[in-house]
Every structure is written in C-alpha cells, then in structure tokens.
Inverse folding.
C-alpha cells in the first residue's frame, strides 16, 4: 500500500466531508490507499450502524462506497497525469451518480473491505467500480460516477 | 398527511436502523408520511453533515433516500393489501438496489424534502422513485428497489 491515504492529500478546504474529511471530527474519516491497480479502504462499523440487528445499514455502505469512489477518482486522475497526489493543479471530484447493489447482509461485527477499480476515465469524469466485502464474502457492489468539481464550487 | 409516521408502525425488532429506527438513539430517525399518492419525509441536516463546505454530503442523501424508499415500499404493500400499516402479517422491506443521481449541490442550511412515488409493485418487490428538494429546487433523484425481507432474516 502507499504510505499516505488519498484523503490525507486533500486540501484543508476539501477535508470537511462527513464521509472522508480528516477535519470533520463527527464523520467517518475513511482512508483509501492504492494496492497495485486497485484501491483499498477498510472501515469498521460501529455497533449502532445497524439496519436490522446484526447487519450494517445500507446508508453507511453507500456513504463509504461514495467517498472511496471519489477518492479513487482523484488518485486515478493524478496517476493519469503522471503527477503525485497533492501536486498542483489539484484534482477534486464530486459524485454525479451513485449505484449500490446489496447482494447479501453485511455483518456488523467485522471490518468492511472496499476494493475499487477505475472502469473509465473520460475528460472530467471517472467511473469507479467498488466491491464491499466482509468476512471474505462480497456483500455489495457499487458504482460511482465522479466528476471534477465545477469551478463554481471550488475553494 | 397521515397522523403516524410509517416508521412508527415498525415492530420493535425492525426499529434499530440507523436511518429510520425510532429505537436507535444515535441515528437519523427519519419519519415518512403519505400525502395523497406521494410519501413525504422532511429531514434537517446537521451542520457537520457536510460534503464540501455549505453542502450536504451525498452519503446522508443516499441514506435518507434509502430509508424513505423502504418505508414507502412497506406502506405501499399495506395499501395494496387493503390493510392498515402495522396489521398482521407484517410487511418489512430491505434494499436490493439504490441509485442516486446528484443533480446539484444540496444546501446544508435548510431542511431537505423527499417525495416518493411507487413506480412498480411486483410480487415481493417494490420500486420507489424519490426526489430530494431543498429551498424549492430538486437537488437529487433516487430509485430504491426494495424487496420483502427474506425469511432467514426475519425477527
């Protein structure tokens, strides 16, 4: 794995996200890393992140898929540009579309492992495919369509 | 609007969801109601539910879409059966698939209004279409494919 998480390269102004911002003390503060051509994020749900008893609620899964997806999109854009993450000009992505298929209930008493692959890079858009596993089984699959943040929202 | 929220009809065993369980003190405890053929849920984000500063993070939007969708599916199943919500046998749905299109940033300083319509009821499956508005503008659209909870997960 790379040493520093994708999210730890984000500028301070983009680090307040509830899902992935290192400066949001209330949030999940997920961390994503390259592992070869895949990116990996491990996240341990809290006992109260339940759907029905014993299983992780789908909104948390969607949240982690989303932020791992946009983080992977940013990291992939830097890779494609041949520059280290955090160098200028910055690449920062937002989510245009999020799709999650829940294949089986995700146990709440184990870490989730998310693995993502870049399915497509085209102009300002990156499509990322994500699998969510727990206890060695794939429990959900997701797709994130990430687009570079519009000029109007830039900080 | 109906007097009692969909979620307040859920059995105790199904009321621990982080998104919609009235018995989960950590969670969002969303409430959904019929308004004619549509169901409505209003939810006010907390200041720390940020994506980029000033806007709601997509994972919260996905979470509320998800739980409003499954709640609407349950309410619709009771309606289709001609029985009041909470009567036996119970209908309880889980999410098979969740899709959210983020059309524009959702302001964090205002309540979100979710409106849902049943697009299809077929056997144990209900497809629900959801719009998310804030300050009078549609900011996101979602679709929830909800299925009746499998026997193996029943409480």
């Amino acid at each position: 794995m790379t040493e520093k998480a994708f999210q730890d390269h984000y500028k301070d102004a983009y680090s307040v996200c509830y899902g992935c911002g290192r400066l949001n003390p209330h949030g999940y503060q997920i961390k994503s890393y390259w592992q070869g051509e895949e990116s990996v994020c491990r996240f341990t749900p809290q006992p109260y992140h339940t759907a029905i008893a014993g299983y992780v609620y789908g909104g948390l899964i969607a949240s982690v898929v989303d932020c791992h997806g946009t983080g992977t999109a940013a990291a992939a854009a830097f890779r494609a540009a041949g520059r280290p993450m955090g160098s200028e000009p910055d690449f920062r992505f937002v989510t245009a579309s999020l799709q999650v298929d829940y294949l089986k209930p995700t146990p709440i008493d184990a870490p989730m492992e998310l693995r993502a692959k870049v399915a497509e890079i085209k102009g300002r858009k990156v499509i990322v495919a994500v699998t969510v596993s727990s206890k060695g089984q794939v429990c959900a699959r997701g797709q994130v369509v990430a687009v570079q943040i519009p000029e109007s929202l830039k900080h």
